[in-house]
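User: Fold this; tokens only.

Assistant: Input:
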Amino acid sequence: MKKKIKVLQVIPRLGFGGAETGCYDLAHFLSEQDYESFIVTSGGELLKFIKKGKVEVFRLPVHSKNPILILFNAIIISLIILFYNISIVHARSRAPAWSCLIATKLTMRKFVTTFHGTYNFSNRIKKFYNSVMVRSHLVIAGSNFIFSHIYENYSDFFSNKKRKLLVIFRGINTNYFNSQKILPSKIDKFSIQYGIDRNKFIILLPGRLTFWKGQKVFIEALKLVIEHDNSLPFVGIILGADQGRNVYKKQLLNLVEKYRLNKIVKFIDHCEEMPVAYRIANIVCSCSVEPEAFGRIAVEAQSMGVPIIASDIGGSTETIVKDKTGFLFKSGDSNALANAIIMLMNKDYNSLKSIGFEGRKNILKKFDVDKMCHTTFTEYKKLIELS
């Protein structure tokens, strides 16, 4: 009788981020195949959506970088591996990856890691800490941009032919991010709740409030749009939590005040259903001033059939078909962003819908979550066959 394959994924938290939703989606996909699926995490909002009986969850402090807790986690993960006869351990962040490395060495199990970011380093100690992500049997890069970063900085680790590096593009749930599935009542509720005038052109900037997400560039661009033509009625929505960055949020509020954009720019801390926010937008912006490893906003916007404007660095350059499904502007350049916004504001409804239609086709073809899960599933099987 063929042994049933069991996969344990380990992630710091199960929130609503890209790495977290990828872990969640893969766990449930595996449970529908002939695999048993397990997750170790410290907690998170997605836990309440885990299907009981499909995925088993263990709570451990795997978010911690404390060396004592990393060792403690390694011991407990080793016991989980042995008790449940886990075949593959898949780590999705550096701190838990150290625990997983120790545990898989002790139990002689297959070890997989996924690079969800570039994990930049400023010294040898930091680089050594990051290197745990390339000490596995299979290293997955979420984009070609990340693949290049890994190869440029950690190529020595791949002289060992037993270690494999490949790109598996992160996928999203295109059924969830589908404009056709949004009820009109939800759109009305969102608009009323946040006082959004849907008769105006709506420009959405999603992403947590942090400098590198480019909210300042966005605000400066909106000022330039008004200077170009103040007869164009529009609303700029900055959607994202400050996560305790009170000083930065205050800077943004001051900038809005300085440019007299109080009646134009709206701040929304959180949205339970992101597809609803995308659905009310005429265009979406992604203004990162540092490279996005994947560029989830660009992918989600296209899946929702909304034209996207993104900075020309990182993963977004791979997910957008330039001038067809979206538009790229020079990172950090508010003038270039303003020009792109004005260009789209001047397009008619059918032209915007056509761009959105092409975007949806692009994501269905290349970045659907099922494609990501099937590819990962295939690589897992190859690992087991090599055992």
